[in-house]
Every structure is written in C-alpha cells, then in structure tokens.
UniProtKB/TrEMBL annotation, chain A:
Source organism phylogeny: Bacteria, Bacillati, Actinomycetota, Actinomycetes, Micromonosporales
The species this protein was found in: Asanoa siamensis
Bilayer-spanning residue ranges: none
Record PANTHER family: CONSERVED EXPRESSED OXIDOREDUCTASE (EUROFUNG), CONSERVED EXPRESSED OXIDOREDUCTASE (EUROFUNG)-RELATED
Record protein name field: Gfo/Idh/MocA-like oxidoreductase N-terminal domain-containing protein
Gene3D superfamilies according to UniProt: Dihydrodipicolinate Reductase, domain 2 (3.30.360.10), NAD(P)-binding Rossmann-like Domain (3.40.50.720)
UniProtKB/TrEMBL annotation, chain B:
Protein name: Dehydrogenase
Domain Gfo/Idh/MocA-like oxidoreductase N-terminal: 6-122
Pfam families for this protein: GFO_IDH_MocA (PF01408), GFO_IDH_MocA_C3 (PF22725)
Annotated ranges, domain GFO/IDH/MocA-like oxidoreductase: 132-255
Length: 290, 330
C-alpha cells in the first residue's frame, strides 16, 4: 500500500476539500493508506490555501514525493509550468484534481467523440452550474472554470486559441475558439441554493457535442437514479465517484511513472482561465498565445 | 360584430399558418390574397374557397372591406411593401424580421406611428406556449431576477435548393435576421433587460459554399450584467431530431426545459425523431393580440421591440464578420 499524508486543509475561501473529498477517498481506496507524519509518506495530498499551494507542491516534489493536488494546481500559468518542470526533473507524479472528466458519462463520451461517433466535432456547448455552497471570493471562474475547460480538451483534443468571456465572475460565459474552426461555449458558475441539491452540488452539468455526422448529448450528473419521496426528491449517483477515479489515476501513475492527468493539463486550463480574466477586463476576445 | 378584413400578401409556406389563425378567430375575415406570382395567388385563392386574388398590391389595398394586411413575403420586401400598406392607411402584421436593415426598420416604425395604424412583427415564439410560460414564470418572481438565458433551437436543413431566397443574404438579411431574431427577441423579452453588446459566431456547416451561416451562436450582454446565449441551427444532424432547449437562471432559482420537455421520442426503423406535443396555436394567439391592439389594447409585441430585434440581428452579422463584440444601440 502506498503511504499518503494529508497536507493542508485550505483552498479558496472557506474550502476544505481535504476533509470533504480527498481524505475519505484515500481511506476507502485499496491502494493507499493514510499516515500522520508527512516524512513517512510517499504521496502528499495537498490542499493548502491557493496562495501557498505552489510552494508546498514544490517542496513535496523536491523531496521526491508524488502529489495529489487540489484544484487549481497553481495560482498562475507560470507557477503551474514551474511545477510541471520540477515534476519531470524529479521523476514524480503530480495529479491535479481535474476529476470531473473521470465521471462515467464523460469517460464514455470522450471515448465516443475521439472514436468518431459523431463524425468531426465542430461545436461543444457546456453548462457547469453548481447550486448553493460558499461562493469563491475571487469568483467561480478561478474556482471551477478549469473543470469544463479540462473536459473540453479531453473531448476534442484541441488547444484553445482564443477566449471571449462575458457575464460576471460568479456566472461567466466563455466562448472558446479551437483549431479547425471548432468552437465551444461554457457557462460556468454558482446558482442560488436549490431545493434538494446538496450545497455546492451540481445543478446542471452537461455537454452537447455537435459533429458532422451526429450529436452527442451528455448529462454529466449521470449515471444516476431518480428518487422521489416525501422528504427528498432528486438524483442518486450510481457510478464510482469521480474522486475515487482520480485516485485510480494517481495509483496507476505511481505504478507506471506516467499519470493520465498531469501538470500539463493544469497549465493548459490555467492559460484559458487567465485569458478569460483578461477578456472580462477588456471586453475583447483574447488570444491564449498557445 | 364588425370583422377586421385582412389581405394576405405572399402565398408561400407560412401563409397557411396565418390563414388557419384567421379561420379560427371570429373577429377576422380573409378578404383576399396577393402574390407576385399569379399562379400561386390563384391556387391559394381557390384553396381558400374562391377568395379574391391579385398580383398588384395597390389594387388589393383598395378592395372593399380591406382593413389590414398580413405580409408573408421574402424579408427584403417587407420594408417597401410595408410602407405602401402604411400609405394606404391599413394595419400591418408583418412576418419577421420587420426589415433587413435598421434604417428600413425605423422607417416602417415611423410610417405607422404617423398613420396611427397598428404595426406588429410576427415574433411568434412570444406566443407559443413555452415562450409565454417562461415569461410568466419569470414575472411571478419564482426564480428571482433572471441573470442568464440559454436558448437553443436546433434542427437540420429545411430549405430548398441553391435558388432559395433564404440562402441569399441580400434577400433574407442573413440567418441572424431570418431566424436569429426569434431567439434574440425572446431572450430579451424574458430577461426584460437592455442589450448592450453582442458577440456572435457563425458556421457554414452544411456546405462550405453557403452564403449564410446555418449555425449561429449569438451571445447578448445586457446593461444589468445578464447574459443570453442563443443558438439557432439548421446544421444539426440528423435533421429528423429537432431539439429546443432552454435554461433561465435567476437569483432565486432556475427554469429549464430540455429537448424532451415538450416532445415525445419516436425511435423506429426509419430513425429517431421528436414528436412535439399538441398545444396552443401560436399564430392564433399572435393574431388575437394584433386584433386586440387594433381595438386599442397595448401591443404584445411593441414596434420598438421589433426594431430592436433587427438591431440585434444586424449586430450579430457584424460581430461574425469582424470577430469582435459589437455595441448595440437600438
Ligand atoms: N413566424 C415564423 O415562424 C415564420 C416561419 C417561416 C417564415 N416566416 C417568414 O415569413 C415570410 C415568408 O416566408 P415563407 O417561408 O412563407 O416564404 P415562401 O418563399 O414560401 O413564400 C413567399 C411568397 O411570397 C411571394 N412573393 C415574393 N415577392 C413578392 C412580392 N414582392 N409581392 C408579393 N408576393 C411576393 C412568392 O411568390 C411566394 O409565394 C418571411 O418573411 C419569413 O421570414 C416566418
């Protein structure tokens, strides 16, 4: 079993994903055991406040440890690139928590689109809307904009060349231009508290991929049962959890030396987020420079 | 009861929907039909039980009992024909778009303002069951202040061959003016806000040689910070599976209707298709509202909103051409 230490209980604002998400997932995962002393661990699960996160990750890498990092991996593109460089230099695996793409519906969708099931994709529409929970102080773009951006890359395999953003940091619309004239649109943000959606849970999470030969409509809140009762009405997720799947990725990465989710994914997503921030400031589309 | 006598101009695809509405409304009477093509005019008149028909508009406008016109001709003819209707002192229900340029749209608005006759543009989605239900839900306060509209009307190729006027950007005004205005108007009506900017992207999906964009994505930003993302498509495959999807998010809740919110699904040997539920007749509701306005009620589709829809459609085409956001001034 691989020994894991839990390092940090912060994030953006009041977030403590360590306690809420990573710790329980590590406890139930067959490949890992949690140890108290970070010096005894082969893996650090890092959920330090965003301002200190990059520094803590760098420290872990330099001491030869693998890392599971809360998202976003780093506060800036430059910081994420430095982590990428360091991880390669020290031969360790760094897995940022881009776990949404690992949901059952999206994994199938990614395989279907990359396998040509809708022909050549030409547009993707996405909504990533969370209901209730604590608003992120700097806006939700930085908090979870990277999730749908990461999924888009997994679906299309195309870089984002240009970003136009409108709305507010709490509820933002991103218009992305990819290679080959492919476009995508992401509406991302936080809705008010909705009945029967757990605080901070997904209210709408879906993708429509339009292709030359068909359309794929994916509800990423599934696979789920629909349960209706006197005191609860709502979906009950049935597949493996996305964080559990992320730990599978980490375990496989440690075993093989290469993880399916890595710092380059974080660099790529952060580049889009920063371009979106510039677009919000200027009101104009911004080239990502990629 | 004194019935409003209506002359239909343009005996094409959409004329039947207007005829059905007139038949269903005891306050209206179809006086006759005008079409530039005498064969089409005659055939239509025969089908309607032998009403009058004409190729010359001015002759028809002088028919006894002609109080009003429903105009169903190609988009670039709306302004010149509409101005003649105004000059003849008749009321006008004009198919959308009101006109293909903002100058023409304003000229029509001014001409009808001057005559005191009622001008209404056929933004029919305001009168469909779903359009009204969403508006009522927002107005009831159930979702708080609306901040986001997502509206998609997706379907496959429906137009005829290369000679179709809808495919000619000069005759149709382009797809943003031809169909885009439906969504631009509806989203803006739902939100109740003032559009300030448009960012749009267009695609020629069905054929590279198309002169119009068969897929449009039109993003409107409003003065209060709200956003509307409107997709209009004739590019989706398979064409048999028409989809309409909407989501409105407010400060206190959301209202949604997925593609299956109104339609059943047929999956058979011939493929998969949506089967829309039977319901209210949007064209009848639209006609009723116009007749109400002729009777003195406030219009359900004010002229200023029709002019604004043209401004938005023009801004969409400009944004696609420049790749930049365009400021909107209606
Ligand atoms: N509200 C809606 O949902 C809806 C749906 C479809 C079409 N429309 C609108 O309805 C209008 C007509 O569309 P359509 O699909 O019925 O077109 P169509 O091509 O089927 O019919 C147009 C008719 O107008 C006639 N015509 C052309 N120029 C004329 C002129 N100068 N004077 C008299 N007749 C003339 C043609 O001969 C033809 O019979 C357009 O403005 C279109 O945008 C609205």
């Amino acid at each position: 079993m691989t020994r894991v230490a839990l390092v940090g209980n912060g994030g953006i604002g009041t977030q403590d994903h360590q306690t809420a998400m990573y710790e329980p997932a590590f406890r139930r995962h067959p490949a890992f055991e949690i140890v108290d002393n970070p010096d005894d661990a082969e893996v650090w699960s890092i959920a330090a406040p965003l301002a200190e996160r990059g520094k803590t990750i760098a420290e872990a890498i330099r001491s030869g440890r693998h890392v599971l990092a809360d998202k976003p991996l780093a506060a800036t593109v430059a910081e994420a690139q430095e982590i990428e460089r360091l991880a390669a230099e020290h031969g360790v695996v760094v897995v940022p928590a881009h776990h949404q793409r690992l949901g059952g519906a999206l994994r199938s969708a990614i395989a279907a689109v990359r396998g040509g099931r809708v022909g050549l994709p030409w547009n993707v529409q996405c909504d990533f809307l969370v209901a209730g929970g604590d608003p992120a102080p700097g806006g939700e773009l930085v908090n979870f904009g990277l999730y749908p951006v990461d999924v888009l890359h997994a679906l299309l395999g195309l870089e984002v060349r240009r970003v136009h953003a409108t709305g507010s940091p709490a509820l933002v619309t991103l218009l992305l231009d990819h290679d080959h004239g492919v476009t995508s649109t992401v509406v991302c943000g936080r809705l008010p508290v909705l009945r029967d959606v757990p605080p901070g849970g997904p209210a709408v999470h879906r993708y429509r991929i339009s292709g030359s030969h068909g359309v794929l409509a994916v509800d990423a809140t599934k696979p789920a049962l629909s349960v209706r009762g006197t005191s609860f009405t709502g979906p009950v997720w049935t597949g493996p959890g996305t964080v559990d799947a992320l730990l599978d990725v980490l375990a496989a990465g440690i075993a093989t030396g290469r993880a399916a989710v890595g710092p380059s994914d974080a660099v790529r997503a952060q580049r889009v987020i920063e371009a979106a921030q510039r677009s919000m400031e200027t009101g104009q589309p911004v080239e990502t420079g990629e | 009861m004194d019935r409003t006598g209506i002359v239909l101009v343009g005996a094409g695809f959409i004329a039947d929907a207007h005829c059905g509405a007139i038949d269903a409304d005891p306050r209206a009477e179809l006086v006759g039909i005008v079409d530039a093509d005498p064969g089409r005019a005659a055939a239509f008149a025969r089908k309607q039980g032998g009403i009058r028909y004409e190729t010359d508009l001015d002759t028809a406008l002088a028919w006894p009992g002609a109080d009003a016109v429903i105009l169903c001709t190609p988009n670039d003819t709306h302004a010149p024909i509409g101005l003649r209707v105004a000059a003849a002192g008749k009321h006008l229900l004009v198919e959308k778009p009101l006109a293909t340029t903002l100058t023409d749209a304003r000229a029509l608005a001014e001409a009808f303002e001057a005559t005191g006759r009622v001008l209404v543009a056929a933004h029919t989605h305001r009168f469909y069951d779903y359009g009204r239900a969403v508006k009522q839900t927002i107005d009831s306060g159930a979702i708080g202040r609306p901040q986001l509209v997502r509206l998609a009307i997706l379907g496959g190729w429906i137009w005829p061959d290369w000679s179709a006027w809808v495919g000619d950007p000069v005759r149709s005004g382009g797809h943003a003016l031809h169909n885009g205005v439906h969504l631009l108007d509806l989203a803006t009506w739902w939100l109740g806000g003032e559009p300030t900017a448009i960012f749009a992207r267009g695609r020629k999906q069905t054929a590279a040689e198309l002169r119009i964009y068969d897929y449009l994505e039109m993003v409107v930003t409003y003065a209060d910070g709200a956003t509307a993302v409107c997709e209009m498509s004739r590019a989706h495959r398979p064409g048999s599976l028409a989809q309409r999807e909407l989501l409105v998010a407010g400060t206190a809740g959301i209202v949604e209707q997925g593609w299956d919110g109104e339609s059943a699904l047929v999956f058979g040997e011939a493929g998969t298709a949506t089967l829309p539920a039977a319901g209210g007749n949007g064209f009848a509701a639209q006609l009723g509202a116009w007749l109400d306005a002729i009777g003195g009620a406030p219009p359900a589709m004010p002229v200023a909103d029709a002019v604004r829809a043209v401004a938005l459609g023009v801004a969409v085409e400009e944004s696609i051409a420049t790749g930049r956001p365009v400021a909107v001034t209606a």
